[in-house]
Amino acid sequence: MPNSPETRAEARRLRDLFAAQGAQVIEADVLQSAETLLDLYGEDIRARAYLTSDPLRGEMVLRPDFTVPVVQMHMESHADPARYAYAGKVFRKQENDETRANEYMQVGYEVFDGQNPAAADAEVFAVIAEGLARLPVRAATGDIGILTAAVRGLQTTDARKAALLRHIWRPHRFKTLLKRYAGGKVPATRTALLAADDPFANAGSDIGLRSRAEVEARIAALRDDAEQPPISSDEVMLIDAILDLRETTPNVLSHLRDIAVDMPAISDAVARMEARVNALDARGVDVDNLEFEGSYGRTSLEYYDGFVFGFYATKRPDLPPVATGGRYDALTARLGEGRAVPAVGGVIRPDLALGGA
């Protein structure tokens, strides 16, 4: 059970394990500013979080995870390097699955250290794995940074690349956009809108929050995009090849080196992955059998921008991941008003760890 005595005892054990790595044990307020989360993730967060209104503090949210408040605290402290451990409840709506808890314990380990990012990635993965050492689990890994590097290297407009980057965490929308930018079929309603001499001719009175000028600007942007040449089929195939990767890490690295020959934009990201694999190996991780998925991490909260990982109970494939984590450098820049600090972290759900044993 998410809040049983056994779960709380396991949470304390894990927190103490993380503290023994040199992490400072911290706490975060249960009520967090909704404004911060809305700025980060847009209105989509409303479907996943519990929001309330305070007459003095404005719109607030029950803590959906610890990463955002931990980053805020760290950026205010200016500590470098720093390691943090925490344990506490988080709250998530589960509208489509009544079997999943909407209130549960989360225990985490976060590392802010830019001296050797590959080593920090390996450290967090290895420490989380140590916390789960008594359990039958399998690990899965990925790297959002390889996909984002590939998108940034596309031979197309900055507006198209920005749109694709914005929807990396929405796989269906990403695929639809990529297909459209590659010359795919455009919806008939959009074709008619762009072809009209006066799109407002039969629009009626103004409604909604957007002004007429904003709508006009959007139509102009769509018309400009329609005149752009399509993304080449070769580039689309390379993106698909990255997303379709699902093998052991050494085999994936070999494939990525081949892809980088035709898509040099991912070369630096592949080199970072190779450095991380070496660091994991030095930590005793069996990298030869470590799974890697090109699409892994794309349905998580949108702050991961590099290495991502998860651990799954092998005896209970029906359970959500027992532990997840990854690198989130860009989040520190957004919460640090432009000052970025390399950061990576991971969390374990002790109730699932016990349930999957």
Describe this structure in words.
The protein is of the alpha+beta class and 357 residues long. The chain has a domain at 185-229. Helices cover 43% and strands 18% of the residues. It contains 14 helices and twelve strands. It has helices at 5-19, 34-41, 67-77, 117-131, 144-152, 158-166, 171-181, 188-195, 212-226, 233-243, 249-262, 267-282, 329-335, 350-355; strands spanning 24-25, 31-33, 51-54, 58-62, 82-91, 103-112, 137-143, 246-248, 291-293, 307-313, 323-327, 343-348. A nine-stranded mixed β-sheet has the order 1-5-6-12-11-10-7-9-8, sandwiched between helices. A hairpin with a 3-residue loop joins strand 3 and strand 4. Helix 4 (117-131) crosses helix 12, helix 6 packs antiparallel against helix 7 and helix 11 (249-262) packs antiparallel against helix 12 (267-282). The longest helix is centred in the last third of the chain and has 16 residues, at 267-282. The protein is globular, with a radius of gyration of 22 Å.
